[in-house]
Each structure stands twice: as C-alpha cells, then as structure tokens.
Design a protein that fits this description.
The protein has 571 residues and is of the alpha/beta class. It has four domains: 72 residues, GIY-YIG endonuclease (3-Layer(aba) Sandwich), CATH 3.40.1440; 157 residues, P-loop containing nucleotide triphosphate hydrolases (Rossmann fold), CATH 3.40.50; 181 residues, P-loop containing nucleotide triphosphate hydrolases (Rossmann fold), CATH 3.40.50; 90 residues, Alpha-Beta Plaits, CATH 3.30.70. The protein is built from 16 helices and 25 strands. Helix 5 links the parallel strand 9 and strand 10. The protein is globular and about 85 Å long.
C-alpha cells in the first residue's frame, strides 16, 4: 500500500505539529503510536490531518501502530480548536496540554461513522435575551418537555456554584443532564465525552472548558449571565473567553445561541449595534426602575473618620445585620474581593456569636458533595458571606437583606474594563431589590457620577458613556486588543526585563503602537504588561501572525528565556 504523510498532535506543550509517514488505514482523530524525540520514545499521538502526498518528499519517521482507529475528536471540534489556536495565538499542542487530560487518549470507541449534521437550510440565530436566569430556566424546561429542543444542548455558566444551582433547579424536571466543570471527576468527564461522540441525546451543563467538548450535533447553546467577567480564562495558557467561543461554536454547528443577561456586556451591545446579535427585552427590564426607599448607601470614609468601622465593615452595617437576624430574617454579605470574605466573616462572627454564618472563602476547595450539601441546607444559615462570583447562585436562599461591601475599589483599578465591572455589579444588586428585599451599599466614594447613573438604573447612558470612552482611547470593542504579559516573582527583575520587552515590541511591531502598561501585582508574583492595539479588520490575520512569531522568537533569546511570556487576546 502506498505511503502517505499525516500531521500528528503530540500532547506536550510545544508549538508544532509533527509529520509522520504511514500506510495504515487511519482518519482524523485516530490514536496512533509514534517514535518521538531524539531517543525515539514511543508515545501516543492524535492524527490531525487527512493523509496527503507532499509536494516535495522529505525524511520523516514511520507510524509504529494504530492504537484506536475510531476518532476521539469530532470534525467540528477540530475545526473549533483550529479557530481557537489561530484566534488566541496558542499552538494546538499547547491548547490540548492546557485543556484536556491525556486520559482521553485511552478512550475505546466502537465503530461509529461521524455524520455531518450541518443543515444549510437552517438559519443560525444569535440572540441577546434580557431576563434573569430563573425565567430562562423555566422556559428551557418547557421547551425540552415539549420536545422543541432535542439532541445535544449546551448551557454555559460562569462558575461551579452556578452550574450546581442550575443542576438543582433541573433536578427531576429534565432528563440526561450532565455537569462538566472543575468539580467533575475525570471518570465522569470521559463518560460525557463518549456520550457526545455517540450522539446520545443529552444536556451538558458546564463552565468555561465545556466549549471544547467534541460536540457534533449541537441543537442550542445558552450562555447564562453572559456579562460575567469570569467567562474570561486568566490562569491557563490559552486565555479564551468562553462566551465568545460559544458564539463561534454556534456558527460551526449552525445552531441557535442565546446569551442571557439582565445587564448585558458592552461587547454584546456593540454586537447588537453591528447586527451580530438580536436583542430581546420583552419585559423592558433594561428600563425598569428601583425603589430607592429600599436602598441605603453608607460612606465608609466618613465612618472611618468617626471611628465607626470594625475591620472593613461599618458599625451601621453590623447593626442592620443584627436587627435583621432579630426579626428572624436572613442576610447575604458579599464583596468583589475573595481575600476580604474571611475578614468579613470574622468581623460579623465576633460582633454576634449566635449568628449561624456560612463563609464561601474557600469555595475553590469545595467538592461536588459539599456543594450539593450546601444547597440542600442553604436555609439553615442566617448569613452567607461570599464574593462576587456566587451572588447569582444564591436565589434559593430566603434572604431579605443584601449587603455589598466596597465595590468602588474595582473602578480604581488600572484596567480598561474596571468601570464596566463596577457598574455591572451595582446594576445587578439593584435589580434584586423588591418588596421583600433591601440593599445596603457600603462605598468609599458616594458622590461619583458613575454611582448616580447606576442608582438611577440608567443602563443605556452608562453603556453609551463607556463605549464613547473606549472609542476615544482605542480600546475593545473598537480595537482588537492584545496583552503581552511577562511573569516573574521578583518585581525589580521583572521591571528591568519588561522595559526591554516593551522596547523590542515597539521596534518590531510599529503597526500596532505598543503601550507600556508596566508592572501589575498578581497573586504570587508580578506581571509586566504591554498592550497592542490592532485594527479589527485591516490586515488583522497578518498582523496577529507577526505578533505570534515575534513573541516566539523573543522567547528563545537569552534575555527573555527565563521569563514566562504569554499572549492574551481580548484581555
């Protein structure tokens, strides 16, 4: 049999695919054994291209054997992964190494020919729906019951608390629901992977990484709380935005997508204006007003001057929480900053030892069982203390008082999205005020224009102002923004080498006018940032490729070799 060449993906964090020669019967997604490296160590690889004959023959190694002929990937998944690699400027092997477990290579699938479900006659629709998650979930349950939606459905949520909340909401109402998030054991993830490849009818309820599953027959995608900044991956090598990925996924599958929010993101409103999304605000929620008699605003600075602060909470807040408890009512206290959750918990606990408080300060370490137990017993607590990420996951908690601590610290950050995050947070809590719920805002600055616009719930004025500022200063969505980030544990070293990095980028990338952001403190170290602003249309692909190759070249130089440099598209 004639020898063909194939491109193979080895799951190691390298920048290249590898070419091998074979006469075996294989297809895209087949698992093969190949010799790898100088020592010809036998490793497993994934066939990523159709067999082909090169224009010019060159010496390559031979495939040793076929481990599994049946594909562990779907063709649409590979199409999506190639798009992600090109868009986010991360090689395919590095994406696989960052997102997937090597255990997927051990999947054994039956002979199952993939069917192309793409329906050219169906018109794909991208919707922006202004509503809260509970109304949408009820609507979704009705649609599933009536069989208007079948095959495979993907519901994305911004974090594991939200996935668990939706799962509990669906309990006994919807069949074949599977959770795919950070708390899902690997064994269960592989089961979901296999069910999807077998085209079984199921609903996947997932957080960010669920967009990378091997869907081949997606019917509908829902993105809950599409405005939530937690959809942006900030820790992995590929800094993807799951909401934006879902939009591309819907086009690949030619399926409808519904972005759900009661306060849409600036990016989504921009897409509405450019006819990329159809907005639906049936109940005029963006025009609704808040009963200001239910809202109390406390100036933290004034309280500090009068010694009316205990830790980071004003004594007024503590007394209101205690009064609420004495009236046999429950309270949620939350802050944008996870590190403040324990401080708040300790302050309230010391103020009144009889309160039964649940702290979400260690939410990342929660197991699935602990999450489930928490929701089963949620109303056993008098107070829940948490950060921004859980506020939309506590609707089953029968609270009457909502307290937000120091949200305006966000708007002081040197980040172009900080104003949007601030107004989304204020807008969100104001929307929760009703006849049965009151709100306390503890702020450092109670006289800002941004706060006044938020209190009035003047959503369109806020968004219009934000979009105008971004246009003037050439930020997203008007420019394609790319952040080059260099990590170091030592501030002085990072500053010195960061200046060198900026100088190199300024000399080599004149088409995007690099901006020196400087050092930013991050967790256990420091990041030096340089922003690159590109035209959204003109030579975009060519310019992004130039940026990728420039960074790849700089990483090999002695000056930068010991520093971890990442590319963050749409930071």
């Amino acid at each position: 049999m004639k020898d063909f060449y194939i491109d193979v993906l080895i799951i190691v964090p390298l920048d290249n695919l590898f070419t091998y020669k074979t006469s075996y019967k294989i297809k895209i997604g087949s698992i093969i054994n190949v010799p790898f490296g100088n020592n010809n160590e036998i490793v497993k690889g994934i066939v990523i291209s159709k067999p082909y004959l090169p224009k010019e023959k060159f010496i390559v190694k031979d495939v040793i054997s076929v481990e599994n002929y049946e594909s562990i990937l779907s063709l649409k998944q590979i199409q999506f992964l190639k798009w992600a690699s090109t868009y986010y400027l991360v090689s395919l092997p590095k994406i696989f190494n960052s997102i997937f477990s090597k255990k997927i290579l051990s999947l054994k699938l039956e002979d199952n020919e993939e069917i192309n479900f793409f329906n050219k006659n169906k018109k794909q629709i991208s919707n922006l729906i202004i509503d809260n998650s509970e109304n949408i979930l009820n609507h979704l349950i009705d649609e599933i019951d009536s069989k208007k939606i079948k095959n495979q459905i993907l519901i994305l949520s911004p974090n594991t608390f939200q996935t668990q909340f939706i799962y509990k909401y669906f309990d006994k109402k919807v069949k074949n629901v599977h959770i795919y998030d950070a708390k899902t054991p690997l064994k269960n993830k592989l089961i979901i992977w296999e069910k999807i490849l077998k085209d079984e009818e199921l609903l996947v309820l997932g957080s960010k990484s669920a967009v990378f599953l091997p869907f081949q027959n997606l019917n509908t995608i829902y993105v809950m709380h599409e405005h939530d900044f937690l959809y942006k991956e900030t820790d992995k090598l590929i800094r993807y935005n799951a909401r934006d990925c879902a939009l591309i996924l819907s086009k690949i599958h030619n399926c409808n997508i519904n972005l759900i929010s009661d306060s849409p993101s600036v990016d989504s409103i921009y897409n509405v204006k450019n006819n990329k999304l159809i907005i639906h605000d049936k109940f005029k929620k963006l025009h609704s007003k808040t009963d200001l008699s239910k809202v109390s605003i406390i100036n933290k600075f004034e309280k500090q001057l009068k010694n009316g602060i205990d830790g980071i909470l004003s004594l007024d807040v503590l007394e209101r929480i205690e009064n609420n408890y004495n009236n046999k009512k429950k309270t949620i206290v939350f802050t944008p900053y996870l590190e403040n959750v324990k401080i708040i918990f300790d302050t309230i606990n010391n103020f009144n030892k009889s309160l039964k408080i649940f702290s979400l300060s260690k939410q990342k370490s929660f197991t699935r069982k602990q999450l489930d137990d928490f929701y089963n017993r949620i109303n056993d607590y008098d107070i829940i203390v948490g950060n921004y990420s859980v506020i939309d996951s506590l609707e089953s908690f029968d609270y009457s008082l909502l307290v937000l601590i120091d949200p305006d610290r966000i708007s002081s950050l040197s980040y172009y999205r900080s104003n949007e995050i601030f107004f989304q947070l204020i807008f969100k809590v104001l929307k929760k005020v009703n006849n049965n719920k009151k709100l306390i805002l503890q702020l450092i600055n109670t006289n800002s224009n941004e706060l006044k616009d938020n209190i009035r719930l003047d959503y369109f004025k806020i968004v219009s102002k934000e979009m105008n500022e971004r246009k003037i200063f050439e930020y997203a969505p008007y420019k394609r923004l790319i952040s080059i980030e260099m990590y170091s544990k030592k501030k002085n070293d990072n500053n010195l080498i960061g200046k060198m990095l900026f100088k190199e980028l300024k000399n080599k990338l004149k088409f995007c006018n690099p901006t020196d952001i400087g050092i930013v403190k991050k967790k256990e170290g420091f990041i030096y940032k340089v922003y690159l602003k590109l035209d959204r249309v003109k030579n975009l692909s060519k310019n992004k490729n130039t940026i990728y190759n420039t960074i790849k070249s700089l990483k090999k130089r002695k000056d930068f070799r010991d520093n971890f440099i990442t590319i963050d598209v749409d930071p």
